[in-house]
Every structure is written in C-alpha cells, then in structure tokens.
Amino acid sequence: MPPIVTSLLDTDLYKFTMWQALLHRHPQTQAEYRFVCRRRPERPLAELLPAVNAELDALCQLRFARDELDYLRGLRFMKSDFIDFLRIFQFQRDFIEARAEGEDLVLTARGPQVHVMAFEVFVLAIVNELYFRQFDAESALAEGRARLAAKIARLQSARAEPPLRHPLELFDFGTRRRYSGAWQREVVQALARALGGAGGCFKGTSNVLLARELGLVPMGTMAHEYLQTFQALDVRLRDFQKAALEAWVQEYRGDLGIALTDTVGMDAFLADFDLYFAKLFDGLRHDSGDPFAWGEKALAHYARLRIDPATKRLVFSDGLDVERALALYRHFGDRVQLGFGIGTQLTNDMGLTPLSIVMKLVRANGQPVAKLSDSPGKTLCDDPTFLAYLAQVFGIAA
After folding, report:
1. Which residue of 49, 345, 355, 368 pairs with 321 in a disulfide if CB–CB is 3.0 to 4.6 A?
2. pTM: predicted TM-score of the whole model, two decimal places
3. Angle of helix 137-158 relative to helix 322-332, nearest 10 degrees?
4. Which CATH number characterizes residue 195's domain?
C-alpha cells in the first residue's frame, strides 16, 4: 500500500502563509508541537504506533517537485526566496518522535520552527486515515456518499430561499479531519461539480494539492500557532497580538486579510483590533465560542469604528455543518460578507465517530505559549502558571 502522504502540497494553505511570514521575520525560533486527543476514541490510538512511524519515515523522504513549486510561485503572495527555501526543504526525522503511553499515542515535534511547523496537518491526516482503516470501508463510504448527497441537495434547495444582500460562500476546511485523502478528493470534486462555478456557493478548499489539481481557489490565512509564537518573542506579552498582526500586514501588504480572533478570546482581541487594523484587514475568522454572539460583537466593533460592515467579511470555521452555516447566513447575510469553512462534517461524516485530535504549538524558544480560546474545551497549555498569567495580563477570568 502506498504512503498516505505522497505530496507536500497535501496540506492547508495557511501552513504555507504562516511558514513564509515566520521564515522572513523569526527564522531562529525554536518550537515544540504536541499531538493531543481531546476525547477517548473507540479504539486505542497506541495500536497505530508502528504504522504511524512508517508513515513518518515516508513523509520525511518527500521533497517538493518542480511543478509544485511552480504552482506555489504562481500565488501572488508567495515570495521567491520562500520558494527557494521550499526547493531545498525536507522534513528531518529526528525532529519528530512517536511513542505509546498506555493506550495513548504521543507525538512531539521539536526543533527550528520553520522545520517542524509543517508536520501538523500531515500528522493529523495520517493518524485519521490509519485509525479509520480499522473499520469497514464499504459501509462507511456508502453512508458518507448518502450524507454528502443530502448536503448537496440541501444547499441546492437553499437557492430557492429569498436572496440576501451578500452571497452564501462555502469552503472545504477538512484536510486535518478527513476520513481519507481519497475521500476528501471525492467530496471536493462532488461539491465543485454540483455547487461550483459562477453563481454556485462552493468557492474552494484549504487543501493546496486539491486546489491545484481541481482548478479551485486555495483558501486560508493564519492559525493560532502564528499568534501564539509572538507570546515568546521579544515583545511585551500584552502586545503580542498587535505585534503579530503588524508583522502580517507588513508581510502580505493587503493580501490574506482575514484575522483569527480567539487566541486569547474575542474581547481581548477586539481591544487590540483598533481602527488601524480594522481598516487594513478584510475581516475576521471565528473558531470558538457562540458564533452568533461573536458575529454581533464583530459588527458592533466595526460600527463603533464607523466602518461599514458590508465592506468586511466574517468567516466561520468552528465545527460547522450545513444547517449551522445556513442559520448563520440567514442571521448575518444582509449585513456583512460571509464565508463558511466546513471541516469534519464534509470530509469525515461517515456514520463513524470522528477523532477529536489536534497538534498544537506548546512552546517557543523554551517558553510556554497558550491558546485561551472562547470555548473552555479548546484552551490549550501545559503550564498552568503561564496560563493564569496570560489570563491576568488580558483581564480574563480564570
């Protein structure tokens, strides 16, 4: 059986955009990323250890092909020196370790951030696919296809609803949660056929390989790790969000203008997202907490700054399904531009219980970093003292 990952483009766009920004400004940063399973799975992940190690061995043999680099070079926000870096890039096997602790699978990547940060999506895709190979594929695929057809029919029927000021726009954000690489491809192809093109609501995918091969728009800007890194750089902790946003603006100068809001919660984010940033960024991305309350806070913030929200975009990406996306669209669609990134409910809705796994930055330059989030279950930090200090600095109740 061939390796699960056969191309280094088989990852999310925001890994490349964050990678470039950090390579240009903080290439010396040392980082540690840790795999976390948030809920006990039906079958022990430790049983996957031999297969995971074999897949990591194969991943660390891959290099970017010339035509893949040409594709990345064609994205206007990718810089030539970053493409030159990718031309010689290869994952180093001694920067990532996998082991078993009881029934748990433990994966840790340590080393220069620009050499270990890209492991994340590949690791999650590998663990997911190996795990779901243990279940009956025929019944899972039959159920997945039936559910996908129902989603497409529901979205097609939504066209008959009274039109709102701004169009419904959906994206695939499911690489890290997918049942398998082949299934993600089938899902994206089906959505593009049924709902893509002019007047359709399906606008692209976060997966760079699929975007390239299927002629779709690659989607994505930044994730928590980018902002968290600035907690350990040479700025005051209270200023880390402003420093991260400023560095992003200087790197991309108008491109990739959606800012992630919940590294330390929406309220703390908006306190830093002043008129300067609100004008420079095209919009905001939601990834935790009540999405309706979050959206109302965003619109109220733009109103206070006397910015017409119709000129901005809100992107929702937290555990969405089609019905939730449609409800949010009906609520906000007359007031602001919208986007909906759907992950698990597109690429792993197979009648099986999805894994709840992440691989997150936990240390940078030897210091702990944290994500406080707007959902308690998504808070991530292995140092309670630093977590309490971070909350105190931003005036957040512990």
Report:
1. 345
2. 0.96
3. 20
4. 3.20.140.10
| Cα separation of the two ends of the chain | 49
| DSSP string covering 92-120 | -GGGEEEEEETTEEEEEEEEEHHHHTTHH
- Burial (CB count within 10 angstroms: exposed 0-12, middle 13-18, buried 19+), residue 137: middle
- Average pLDDT value for the chain: 96
Question: 286 and 164: one domain?
Answer: yes
* DSSP per position, 142-163: HHHHHHHHHHHHHHHHHTTSPP
Say if 278 falls within a structural domain: yes
For CA atoms 25, 283, 80, 58, the dihedral sign is positive
| Shared-domain flag, residues 277 and 312 | yes
Task: Look at residue 398 in the predicted model and tell me its pLDDT.
Answer: 60
**Cα-only R_g, the chain:** 20
Count: domains in the chain: 2
Helix (H) or strand (E) holding 37: strand 30-37
pLDDT tens-digit readout, 306-358: 999 999 999 999 999 999 999 999 999 999 999 999 999 999 999 999 999 99
- 166/295 same-domain check: yes
Does the residue 23 lie in any domain? Answer: yes
Burial of 131 per CB tally in 10 Å (0-12, 13-18, 19+) = buried
Query: For residues 274 and 265, what is the distance between their CA atoms, to the nearest angstrom?
Result: 16
Q: State the pLDDT at residue 17.
A: 98
Specify if 4 maps to a domain. Answer: no
Contacts of residue 223, defined as CB under 8 A and 6 or more positions apart, other chains included, come to 14, 18, 260
Domain with 379, as residue range(s), is 13-134+356-393
User: Do 209 and 335 fall into the same domain?
Assistant: yes
Q: What is the pLDDT of residues 40-76, one digit of tens each?
A: 999 999 999 999 999 999 999 999 999 999 999 999 9
My answer on whether 163 and 289 are in the same domain is yes
pLDDT beyond 90 at 382 = no
pLDDT at 103 over 70: yes
